[in-house]
Specification:
The complex is a heterodimer of chains A (about 110) and B (about 900). Chain A has about 110 residues and is mainly alpha-helical. Helix content of chain A is about 55%, strand content about 10%. In chain A, strands 1-2 form a two-stranded antiparallel ribbon. In chain A, helix 1 packs across helix 2. Chain A is elongated and about 55 Å long. With about 900 residues, chain B is of the alpha+beta class. In chain B, about 55% of the residues lie in helices and about 15% in strands. Chain B is built from 30 helices and 22 strands. In chain B, the strands form 3 sheets. In chain B, strands 1, 2, 3, 4, 5, 6, 7, 8, 9 and 10 form a 10-stranded mixed sheet that branches. In chain B, strands 13, 14, 15, 16, 17, 18, 19 and 20 form an 8-stranded mixed sheet that branches. In chain B, strands 12-21-11-22 form a 4-stranded antiparallel sheet. In chain B, a hairpin with a 2-residue loop joins strand 13 and strand 14. Classes of the chains: A mainly alpha (about 110), B alpha+beta (about 900). Chains A and B meet through helix 3 of A and helix 3 and helix 4 of B.
Chain lengths: ~110, ~900
C-alpha cells in the first residue's frame, strides 16, 4: 500500500537523494541535507530513516566496491523507487491542495 | 604517516561493526564514517578527526544498539546457542544493553545509586585496607615490635595495645639495658617525638622532631635516600649532634640539593649536622615528623630510671617468634629486677608494631565500613526491586522463550547479565566518584589517624570498585533471575502478562526488599543519631575549668636561660609582661595542660590511711596563679601561693579524685606525697585540694598533683592568659611579648575553647557524625524511593481492581487509607527489624560512643519516627493516585 502522506523528514531525504542524482551516497545525502535544507542531521537518524523507507519500498540501494579512502568498505548508492516518487508527488499534491487560496495569508492573517 | 595513523581507531570500528546490522549495510555505514574521517584528516589534525569520528560513531552505534528491533539470541532445542557459548553471551549482553538504553531514566537512577554505594565502599575499604590490613611500609614489617614497660598495677599483667597509648614509656637508661641485654632482636632502639623550634630562613618555625637512636633506624630497615642514618657510635656520650631530614623538609628547605650533607640545621638553639635524607613516604612514627635528631647527651647521661619519655622499637631476629622473644624479655626483666629491686614488679611487653600504630582505630573504621556496607546493601535491594518489576513485566516474553525451549540457566544468565552490566556501570561511576572524591575526603579525616599518609588513590581502587561491582551485580540480579527461571510456562503465556498473580508475587518479594531497606536505613539513622548525641554529650562535658576567654601560648625560655635559676627569672618576667597587656585578668603557666598533648605520669609514693602506696599518677608543675587563671576552684585548704618557694616547706595541691583516693573519709590536708622525677624525691605536704579537671573530654578526671615551680624548677612552657574580652584580640600582644622574650622560638598560640573543639575526641566524633549522618541521609532517601516505587507499582497493578471498587461505590478515602496502610505496615516491620539489628549491633558501637547508650530509647524512637514520617509522605503520592483512579478510564482499557 502506498502511504498516503510522507513525513516531513522523509520527504526531505527523498528529495535529497533525487538532488544528489548519480552521487546519492549517504555522505552526499547528508551534505545535500545540510546545504539545501540547512539541517544538520545525525548519521544515526539518517540511517534509521533510510532503513525505514527501504522497508516501505520507497528507496532501494545498490552496493559499490570500497575504495582506500573508505578503508575498503563498500558503499551504498540510494535511488528513489517508482513508489517513492509516487508518494512524493502525492504528498506534494496534498500540500498544494491544502495551501490553495492561502497564498499571502501567512503574512496578514486576521487576528 | 604510517598506515595505522591514516585510519580511524580500529577498536572503535570493531565495536561499531558488532553493533551495526550484519553484511554490507553495516559495513557501508562504517565505510561512510571512514570516508569522512579521511576527509577530516586532510583538512585538519588527527585529533580533531578522531573526535568527530567518535561523535559520529556514537550517534550511529546508539541508534542501532538501542532502537533496533529486539533480537533475542537464536535458541537451539535446549536453549543452547548453535553459534557457541561466546556468541550467546554476546547476544545476551546486546539484549541487556538495549533494555537499559530503552529506559534511560531507570538506568540512570540505578547507576547513580550504585555509583554512590560502590564509590563510598571503595573509598572506605581502601582506607581500612591501608590502615588496618596492609603491613607497615617497612621490609619484613611483621618482625617489627614495640617494647613496653608493663606495670601490672596499672595495666594489668596482659595489657592490650589500646591501653598503653605511650603512657608506659621508659627513660634512656632503661632502654639501654633492654637493648644490651636482650638476644631476641637483630636491632632495637628508642625514639621520642617532641615539638621543637627549627630555625628557617624566614624565622623560627615550630616543627615535630623525633629523637632517634641508631638502633631504631636499624630496626626499621629503610635505607636513606641520601647519605646515612645514625651509626652506633652516634649513641655515645659526646658524639656530635646529627640530624636526618625528611624528604619533605629536604625538598622544601633545601630544594633537594644533594650537597645538603654536612650542612647544619638549628633545632631549639642547637646546631645539628645533616648526615642523611630519608626517602619519600618514610613517616616514623607518624607523618608529622620533619626531621630525626640524635639524642642529646643529657638524656644519655641521666641516671633516672623511673621516668618515661621514649618508646622502643625492635626487629625480631630471624626465626624468633613473638612468644620466644617474649620469654627472652621476661628474662631481661627478671635480671633488671635483681639489680634494681624497685623495678622487680615491672615486666616488659612486646606488641607487634602494627597493632601499636593502629591501636584503638579499628573500631571507628569498622563502624564506618559497616555503615557504607549498609548503604550499598540498600542500593542493592533498590536495584533488585527495579529488576524484579522489569522481570515481571517481561513474564510473558520469558514464558514464550521458555515454551520455545530456552533453558532456565540461559534465562538466569540473561537476567544476571543485565544486573551485572548495571553494576559494572555503577562500579565505573563509583570508581570515578572515589577517584575524584578521595583526596577531599581524606582531608576531612581526623589528622591523628595513623597511616593516613599511606593511602593511595591508585589502580588498587579500580580493583576494589570492580570487585564491589561484581558482588552487587550478583546480589541484585540473583533474586529476579531465580524468579524468572521459576516462571511457569503455561500460566505466564496464558496470562498475557496482564494477570495479577505474577504481579502479586512480585510485589510481595518487592515489599520484602523494601522492609529490608527500611530496616537497614533505620540502623544507619539510629547510628547517626547516637553519634550526634555522643558529640553533644562530649561538648557538654564540664572540663573542670572555664575555657572561655583563655589564650594558651607555648613559650619556653631561650636555650641559654634554661638553668633552674634563670628559667625562674624568665617565668617571672614573662608573667609580669603578659599581665601588663591590656585586658589581661590573670596569667598562669604549667608544664602540661588539658587539651595539649599527652601527660607525663611519674611514679609516686603516697601516704594513705593504710600506709604507703606506690604507683603512677599525673602531675603538673605550675605557677601559683595557674588555678586562678584557669578558674579551677580550690575546694579544700589553700591554693599554691608565691610564698611557696625554694626556701619554704615543700607543698603540693591534689585534685579531688586523688584526695578521695588518699583519704576516702577524712581530709588529705597534712598528708604527704613523694613524686619521683629527675631525682626529685622529697616528701611534700598536701596543703589544698583543687577541683577535678579532664585533660581529654572522653577521659574521666585523673588523680593529679600540682607542684609549685619555685619548689621544683623545670620547663614550664604552657602559658594560660585569661582575658575579660575577646581572646582573639589579645593574640598579637601575646605574640609580641613571646617573641621579645625568646627571639629564637616560634610561639604557638591558641584560644583554649578552639583547642577543646579541635581536640581529638571532638574531631573524631564530629567526623563520625558528618559521615554517618550523610550516609544515613542517603540510606533514608534510597529507602523512601523504594517504598514509593513498590506502592506506585502496586497501585498501577491494581488500578483495575480499584476502578471496579470505585465504580461499585467504594469511597476514595478508604482506597487512600488502604494504600497508606500498606506503607505503614512496611515501615512498621522495617523499623521493628531495624531496632532488633541496632540492639544487636549495640555491643559493637557502644565503645565508640560517649555518654550515651547504644540502645538509647530516645534516639531509637526519633529515628523510627523520622522514617515513619518520611515513608508515609512517600506513600501519599501513590495513595492519592489510587484514590483518584477514574473507573471509566480503567474499565475502558479492558
Amino acid at each position: 500500500m502506498t502511504p498516503r502522506f510522507l513525513g516531513e523528514f522523509e520527504q526531505i531525504v527523498l528529495l535529497a537523494i533525487l538532488q544528489s542524482r548519480d552521487e546519492a551516497f549517504a555522505v552526499s545525502i547528508l551534505r545535500e541535507l545540510d546545504r539545501r535544507a540547512g539541517r544538520p542531521v545525525s548519521r544515526g537518524t539518517l540511517y534509521k530513516t533510510l532503513e525505514r523507507m527501504e522497508a516501505k519500498g520507497l528507496v532501494a540501494w545498490s552496493t559499490e566496491d570500497g575504495t582506500p579512502e573508505r578503508g575498503g568498505h563498500p558503499r551504498r548508492k540510494f535511488t528513489v523507487t517508482a513508489r517513492g516518487i509516487g508518494a512524493l508527488e502525492e504528498s506534494r499534491a496534498t500540500l498544494l491542495k491544502m495551501w490553495e487560496g492561502l497564498e499571502g495569508a501567512e503574512e496578514g492573517s486576521p487576528s | 604517516m604510517s598506515a595505522r595513523d591514516q585510519g580511524p581507531p580500529a577498536w572503535v570500528q570493531g565495536i561499531l561493526l558488532r553493533c551495526l546490522p550484519p553484511g554490507s549495510v553495516g559495513r557501508s555505514m562504517v565505510g561512510d564514517l571512514h570516508e569522512e574521517f579521511t576527509a577530516d584528516l586532510r583538512t585538519g589534525g588527527r585529533a580533531r578527526a578522531v573526535l568527530r569520528y567518535l561523535r559520529k560513531a556514537v550517534s550511529v552505534g546508539i541508534r542501532f544498539a538501542g532502537r533496533g528491533p529486539l533480537r533475542p539470541a537464536p535458541l537451539g532445542p535446549r536453549g543452547n546457542d548453535p553459534g557457541g557459548a561466546m556468541s550467546a553471551l554476546w547476544h545476551d549482553l546486546r539484549l541487556s544493553v538495549r533494555l537499559l538504553v530503552r529506559r534511560p531514566g531507570l538506568t540512570l537512577a540505578a547507576v547513580v545509586s550504585l555509583g554512590l554505594g560502590i564509590g563510598a565502599n571503595a573509598s572506605i575499604f581502601t582506607l581500612v585496607n591501608t590502615i588496618l590490613l596492609k603491613p607497615l611500609p617497612y621490609p619484613e614489617a611483621r618482625d617489627l615490635v614495640g617494647v613496653f614497660r608493663i606495670d601490672p598495677e596499672v595495666t594489668g599483667p596482659h595489657p592490650t595495645p589500646d591501653r598503653l597509648s605511650g603512657l608506659f614509656a621508659v627513660p634512656y637508661e632503661v632502654h639501654r639495658d633492654w637493648v644490651h641485654m636482650s638476644h631476641a632482636f637483630t636491632a632495637a632502639g628508642g625514639y621520642a617525638t617532641d615539638e621543637a623550634t627549627l630555625m628557617e630562613e624566614s624565622g623560627p618555625a615550630s616543627v615535630i622532631v623525633c629523637l632517634m637512636t641508631s638502633g631504631a633506624f636499624a630496626a626499621l630497615g629503610i635505607a636513606p635516600e641520601l647519605g646515612r642514618t645514625f651509626l652506633p657510635g652516634d649513641n655515645r656520650v659526646g658524639a656530635p649532634p646529627q640530624a636526618v631530614l625528611s624528604y619533605g623538609l629536604w625538598q622544601r628547605r633545601f630544594g633537594r640539593d644533594r650537597g645538603v650533607l654536612g650542612r647544619e640545621v638549628n633545632v631549639d638553639g642547637t646546631d645539628f649536622t645533616v648526615v642523611g635524607v630519608m626517602p619519600w613516604g618514610f613517616a616514623f612514627p607518624n607523618a608529622g615528623v620533619r626531621l630525626w635528631i640524635s639524642f642529646p647527651d643529657e638524656y644519655k647521661t641521666s641516671p633516672v630510671r623511673n621516668a618515661g619519655y621514649m618508646q622502643v622499637v625492635a626487629r625480631l631476629a630471624p626465626g624468633i617468634t613473638l612468644e620466644a622473644a617474649q620469654r627472652d624479655v621476661d628474662e631481661v626483666a627478671r635480671r633488671i629486677g635483681e639489680v634494681h629491686p624497685e623495678e622487680a614488679k615491672d615486666g616488659i611487653g612486646l606488641f607487634p608494631l602494627k597493632d601499636l600504630t593502629v591501636a584503638g582505630r579499628g573500631l571507628g573504621l569498622g563502624v564506618l565500613m559497616g555503615a557504607v556496607t549498609l548503604v550499598l546493601l540498600i542500593a542493592c535491594t533498590n536495584i533488585a526491586g527495579l529488576l524484579l518489576v522489569r522481570a515481571s513485566e517481561r513474564r510473558r516474553e520469558i514464558g514464550v522463550r521458555r515454551a520455545l525451549g530456552a533453558g532456565g540457566r540461559r534465562l538466569v544468565f540473561q537476567q544476571l547479565s543485565e544486573s551485572l552490566l548495571l553494576s559494572l556501570l555503577g562500579g565505573a561511576a563509583g570508581w570515578g566518584l572515589a577517584r575524584v572524591g578521595m583526596v577531599p575526603f581524606l582531608s576531612l579525616m581526623p589528622r591523628e589517624l595513623p597511616r593516613i599518609n599511606e593511602v593511595r588513590v591508585d589502580s588498587g581502587l579500580l580493583l576494589v570498585a570492580g570487585a564491589f561491582a561484581l558482588l552487587t551485580g550478583l546480589l541484585t540480579g540473583l533474586l529476579p533471575a531465580l524468579k524468572t527461571a521459576a516462571t511457569p510456562i503455561a500460566s505466564a503465556v496464558q496470562e498475557g502478562g496482564r494477570s495479577l498473580a505474577g504481579g502479586r508475587s512480585t510485589s510481595r518479594t518487592q515489599s520484602g526488599l523494601v522492609v529490608t531497606q527500611i530496616a537497614l536505613a533505620f540502623v544507619l539513622l539510629a547510628g547517626a543519631g547516637l553519634f550526634v548525641r555522643s558529640m553533644m554529650e562530649l561538648l557538654a562535658v564540664d572540663p573542670g575549668f572555664r575555657a572561655e576567654g583563655i589564650v594558651v601560648a607555648s613559650v619556653d625560655p631561650p636555650a641559654d636561660q634554661r638553668t633552674d635559676e634563670s628559667a625562674l627569672v624568665f617565668l617571672q618576667e614573662m608573667q609580669e609582661r603578659l599581665r601588663a597587656l591590656p585586658g589581661v585578668e590573670e596569667v598562669g603557666a604549667a608544664n602540661q595542660m588539658p587539651f595539649s598533648g599527652g601527660w607525663s605520669a611519674p611514679p609516686v609514693s603516697v601516704e594513705t590511711s593504710e600506709g604507703i602506696w606506690e604507683g603512677i599518677r599525673h602531675f603538673a608543675v605550675v605557677l601559683p596563679t595557674y588555678h586562678a587563671a584557669m578558674r579551677i576552684p580550690i575546694v579544700e585548704g589553700r591554693g599554691l601561693s608565691p610564698d611557696d618557694d625554694a626556701g619554704s616547706e615543700p607543698v603540693v595541691v591534689l585534685s579531688e579524685t586523688l584526695a578521695r583516693f588518699m583519704a576516702p573519709e577524712g581530709s588529705p590536708l597534712g598528708m604527704r606525697v613523694r613524686v619521683e622525677t629527675r631525682g626529685d624525691s622529697i616528701w611534700r605536704t598536701v596543703v589544698g585540694v583543687a577541683g577535678d579537671v579532664v585533660y581529654r573530654l572522653n577521659y574521666a578526671p585523673q588523680g593529679m598533683f600540682y607542684v609549685p615551680v619555685a619548689q621544683r624548677p623545670g620547663r614550664v612552657g604552657n602559658w594560660v592568659i585569661r582575658t575579660s574580652g575577646d581572646p582573639a584580640v589579645l593574640m598579637g600582644g601575646i605574640r609580641r611579648v613571646a617573641e621579645e622574650m625568646n627571639p629564637g622560638a616560634a610561639p604557638t598560640l591558641r584560644v583554649l575553647k578552639d583547642a577543646i573543639e579541635d581536640s581529638q575526641a571532638v574531631v573524631a566524633s564530629r567526623f563520625s557524625v558528618l559521615l554517618l549522618g550523610s550516609l544515613a541521609g542517603l540510606a533514608g532517601i534510597l529507602a523512601i524511593l523504594g517504598v514509593y516505587g513498590v506502592l506506585a507499582y502496586l497501585v498501577q497493578l491494581r488500578s483495575r481492581d480499584i476502578g471496579i471498587r470505585l465504580a461499585l461505590g467504594a469511597e476514595s478515602g478508604r482506597i487512600l487509607k488502604t494504600v497508606l496502610r500498606r506503607g505503614l505496615v512496611m515501615v512498621g516491620l522495617g523499623v521493628g527489624i531495624g531496632t532488633a539489628l541496632s540492639l544487636a549491633l549495640g555491643r559493637v558501637t557502644q565503645s565508640a560512643l560517649f555518654g550515651v547508650r547504644a540502645w538509647d530509647p530516645l534516639t531509637l524512637t526519633a529515628a523510627g519516627l523520622a522514617l515513619l514520617a518520611s515513608v508515609l509522605a512517600a506513600s501519599y503520592l501513590p495513595a492519592r493516585r489510587a484514590a483518584t483512579v477514574d473507573p471509566v478510564e480503567v474499565l475502558k482499557g479492558e
